[in-house]
Every structure is written in C-alpha cells, then in structure tokens.
Amino acid sequence: MTNYRTLSEVTEDYLRKRPDEIDDYITVLFDEYAESGDAAALLSSLRIVSRVKGVTQIAEVSGMSRKGLQKALSENGNPQFSSVNAIMNAMGYRLTPQKLAATAYNPQ
Length: 108
Fold this sequence. Notes:
By secondary structure, this protein is mainly alpha-helical. It is built from seven helices and no strands. It has one domain. It is globular and about 55 Å long.
C-alpha cells in the first residue's frame, strides 16, 4: 500500500529544505487571504510555517502555550487579532497595512 503525503506535508518539507523562501511564502499567503478572505487557509499556512520554525519556540516567544498556539492555528481556530499578531512577531514578521488601489475598494 502506498502512503501519500498531504499538501501540508509536502509544503512543510519544501520550506524546511528552502528556508529562504519562507518570506515569499508568507507574502503570497497574505495576498491570497486578502483576495479570498479564507481564514482557514491562512491559519493552515501559518501552522505550516510554525512547524518549520519550531512550534515550541514560536509559542514561547509569542507568550502562548504550545497547546494554545496549536489551537489558535487549527482549522477550527478563531484566534484574536492580538494572538495572530503575537504569532507573526514570534515568527519574525509584523502585520503592516498596505494601501489598496482605488478599484479594489470602490470609493464613491
């Protein structure tokens, strides 16, 4: 019987072998979230990055328990903004605003 890896496992393995591509991966995942609003996909991708960077270390730096971090980034997670911000900071990133083109928000 063949064991197939999940997309998350393949992505995690890819990022472990190419840590220099994590910055671009995070940029793309937030761009995709801005377009789709799919919070579950965003949390799933952040969960992959946290595993690559080390869940225990991310939890310690963010001030969360390991279990709390895993719960926040779970498929059913509904983390507070402050939790996402703390996780991003612990990963070495910050959330910053980016001006939208006028057509993106359709001003009157």
